Amino acid sequence: MSATKRSLYSFTLEELQDHLKENGFAKFAADQVYNWIFKRYTFDMSEWSNVSKKIKDHLTETFDLSLPKIVWNGLSTDGTRKYLLGMGDSNTVEAVAIPAKNKRLTLCISSQVGCAIGCTFCHTGTMGLTRHLTTGEIVGQYLAVTKWLRDKVDAEARLTNIVYMGQGEPLHNFENVKQATRLFLEEQGIALGQRKITLSTSGLVPQIEKLQDFPPVNIAISLHAAHNNIRTELMPINKAYDLQRLFDAIKTIPLKAHRFITYEYIVIADLNDRQEDIDGLCELLDTKVSKVNLIPFNEYPESKFKSPSGAKVEWFQESLINRGYICTTRITKGADILAACGQLKSEHDKLNLWDD
Ligand code: SAH
Ligand code: SF4
Which CATH superfamily is domain 69-353 in? Predict the structure, then answer.
């Protein structure tokens, strides 16, 4: 994508209406443009039959119309598909489409190239941060994958859910992620419901305190430990914002009735999978507003931690359920193509192996 021009895929409908009006065009043309892009996923302007040539020329001259390019994709045996997306400046990020029951198809998207937080269990964390993604690049992942699915798999394909759990710390890129989220919710556009979008954060306290200012989507907190010493070992951010500060900030998140905060907890063998970790979680979390999502640690080449046994995870989950929590275990998907949580790293030495 061009660094100089703003992406056309970064405007809310109202902003596009205002823009066209200011430039002497009819406001309603924005509705038509919006419909072609965000409802029909048709990016070839020659097909925009109800949009005038003048407007098309104006948009072409003024904005960046390119989409992230799918440079590689690979299908896991469980149906999960990983996409490597080129951003036009030699940087790539990954997005993962995860199918589930009832036609649910969740897209796990990236918010940054790499990540600055440096969690010691995370493959992305080992990359460091290269740069933030723009709003157009974040929304572009959704658009490019939808178009790919419609062209290659099913003309009616629809990604029904979004999780900000790909590469990057979404709250570190607050403004662009916020604008992208507005676009995902836009009624005359992609029109996902607030509950279909989940933002996962490692616990950037100042940005958590700004969530009043963010569309009310589901929030997941990457907790991973109930004791400061273990959390600091796993997540250097805990040195700056420890559990006390994190939970003080979480209290400021506006929660609509019957909504929960999800706490993600990676279960790592012999590290945070003990009875005292369960006791610690019970002290920290209020059963009425918390859900716990256990993620068995996914190993990747050179990872220094180990996956827990299935029995251990089951015991951990049962124990929390017995103490009154809603607690689920995330089924690992896509591990055979390194598409599972924490395995995303834009590096493809094995490119040819997985090409299909
Ligand atoms: N940066 C954000 C969102 C992206 S990470 C965050 O950390 O919340 C998405 C989820 O994958 C997080 O809960 C993260 O902790 C988890 N994850 C990272 N590495 C993992 C690994 N090796 N095994 C299992 N889960 C992992
Ligand atoms: Fe960044 Fe999340 Fe990975 Fe931590 S777990 S390094 S915050 S992507």
Answer: Aldolase class I (3.20.20.70)
